[in-house]
Structures are given as structure tokens and as C-alpha cells.
Design brief:
Helix content of chain A: under 10%
Distance between the termini of chain A: 40 Å
Number of strands of chain B: 11
Structural class of chain A: mainly beta
Order of helices and strands of chain B: EEEEEEEEEEE
Largest sheet of chain A: 6 strands, mixed
Largest interface: A-B, 24 and 26 residues
Number of strands of chain A: 11
Radius of gyration of chain B: 13 Å
Order of helices and strands of chain A: EEEEEEEEEEE
Strand content of chain A: over 45%
Shape of chain A: globular
Strand content of chain B: over 45%
Oligomer: heterodimer
Amino acid sequence: ILNVEQSPQSLHVQEGDSTNFTCSFPSSNFYALHWYRWETAKSPEALFVMTLNGDEKKKGRISATLNTKEGYSYLYIKGSQPEDSATYLCALDRGSTLGRLYFGRGTQLTVWP
Amino acid sequence: DADVTQTPRNRITKTGKRIMLECSQTKGHDRMYWYRQDPGLGLQLIYYSFDVKDINKGEISDGYSVSRQAQAKFSLSLESAIPNQTALYFCATSDPTRTGELFFGEGSRLTVL
């Protein structure tokens, strides 16, 4: 069993607050780390795919960092908006079979206006 | 129109019935996947296919079978549905020549009574 852990499980913030959550994974046999955003009643959509230790990626107010040596990634949202409310999933690709991902349970973010 | 389309979107059935969930894609990707989402758990891989002649079991394939009818079509069957197969099912595709990110359908919610 390969454990990809996400914390916290859920998060409630006020509009304008900045927030961050964590994805932890086994550091051995690392190939890539994916972040997905999943809005209710929609399809999960990829935010970032990160491969290199120390990688930092940014898309608008959302950014992510990666530490492959210690096995964690952080996702940051600056100035949260109600439309950021979603479940954020991380997934580990170990590269042995490209595209076979191991998902965490997700962090459910609710942003109150 | 969605690039990855799943039918049906919702289905209620009874124990012992045969159910087929269908997935079609217009992205031109060779790789297709079926994942299952249970509340409080991460997405779990049921089956995956890297081309029409290549079918592979995932972590939770027992009780399921698949058919890859064409590059664009990948169907999941439950030969004799049981209540613990009640879940949200996602089809996904990926392009291995790029980042390996998954492109998901909108999900099929199956309830087995």
C-alpha cells in the first residue's frame, strides 16, 4: 500500500485569507507529483505537474512547491475567493507505469464570502 | 462538449444486475483509465489501458471487467453488482508524451441497492 497523505482534510477560510495545505508521499521512486482541483459536480482538473526537487509552480493566485528528498509538496492560495472552494487532490507518479497515479484523500477547501 | 464523456452520469441498480459504464474521448490519447472514488478515500485505480490491445488491472479490479473497443472508447462492466460497489466512477485519459496529467470525465455515480 502506497500512502499519499494530505492535510488538513478540510479547511474553512474567509474571503481574502491566504491558505496552504500539504501533500506527503514516500520519497523513494519519485517521478512526478500532480495537483488537481475538483469542484463539486465537475471533473477534477490538473493544476500542476511537478518533477524536480525545489520546483515551484504558479498559476494566478495558486502556487505549489515540491521537496522530493523529504517527500512533501505545499499548495498555497493567496487571497482566497469563494470560487476557490473545491477539493484539492495530490497524486504521486512513481514512473514505473507513466500515468498510473496514487491519489491522496484530498483537502476540501471552503471559502466564505 | 466535454473531451472525455461518461455515460450514464447517474445510475441506480439492484444487487446482482450487470452494469456497464461507458467512456469516450476526443483527445486522441492512447492511455485510458477507470478510477473509483469513495467518500473519505483517494481515487483508486480499477483498470488502465495503454492501447486497444493492452489492458491492465489496477489496485481494485476484483468484480470489474473492461473493454477497449477503440482508441476512443473504454467501458467498465460490473458483471454482478453488489452494494459495496456504490461509488463515483471516473474515466480519464493521458498523453504520455507530455506531462502525464490526467484528463477526467465528469463521473458516473452508481448506486447499488
